[in-house]
Amino acid sequence: MSGRLVDSYDLVAFDLDGVVYLIDRPIPGAVEAISALHAEGTALAYATNNASRRAADVAGLLTGMGVPAQPKEVLTSAGAAAAMLADELPAGSRVLVVGAEALRAEVREAGLVPVSTVDEQPVAVVQGYGPEVGWQVLAEASLAVRAGARWYATNTDKTLPSPRGPLPGNGSLVAVLRTALGREPDVVVGKPEPALFTTAAKLAGAQRPLVVGDRLDTDIEGAVRAGMDSLLVLTGVSGPAELLAAPASRRPTHVAADLAGLFAAEESVRVPASGEHGGWRLTAEGVLEGEGDPVAALRLAVGATWDGLAPAALRAGSPAAQAVLADWNLE
């Protein structure tokens, strides 16, 4: 039997929304899992595409939930975008900011001047998530880009997980400008670009980091691009149906229901599984038989679908399997 999953890595880099919390509510079991890692001395990092909070604010939110996080452990797409702007633009350059005050503060701290209108002649536009973003600032950004400003997006997550269900994310706001301008942003800073993860590993001096996320299109693809192993947890955006159809660029190394999977035996959470796994068996014809943990059934099923079997071709060979496939919207 293999050791615990977490014992194979020297850094655990967490996404936040959908992994640790939903907006501002901790996901059940997340605080206990991360606190246990802290107690064991495991190196941790938090890499989030959400540009509406600064690193210190994120650390404060986590600490308030019972996770003793430090600002230096937090990497945000807002901070990364501001650092990139500072590298590419002369000090004092005007940057039109679309997003929350946190993004404006990061731009200002980077030695640039945040502005709000095209009349202030910005040389760049940086766009990040903000719950108050509306038509007026999007219109100013559109005019600025048309006038020649370089367009940076902190991230392109289409949705943001919440306790009430997925909400429009920064990618949906980026899509407004994409439609108006008829083109893509010049630069996308956050995941799935690998910079947040590679920076976290560099700061920690890690040689074997593990990325933990809830989205295949950002967290897991970002880990693949960074050459890092990953754990997909099913507490946020991506679910079984998306995982079954995932292309090679978005396939995690491990899958678990939640962060408790970090403490499971590594071989028990690795994907794809084969043969008999967790009380289930999948035949060569794609018939799922047996009963047990639904996530164990999912690990078996991805082995078949990633090898070319259409997800819709999976069939139930037991009542428990029928219930699982129905939950995956396949029956």
Automatic annotation (TrEMBL):
Protein name, per record: Acid sugar phosphatase
InterPro entries in alphabetical order: HAD-like_sf, HAD-SF_hydro_IIA, HAD_sf
Source taxon at top rank: Bacteria
GO CC terms of this entry: cytoplasm
Coiled-coil features, chain-numbered ranges: none
GO MF, one annotated term: phosphatase activity
NCBIfam families in UniProt: HAD-SF-IIA (TIGR01460)
Pfam families the record matches: Hydrolase_6, Hydrolase_like
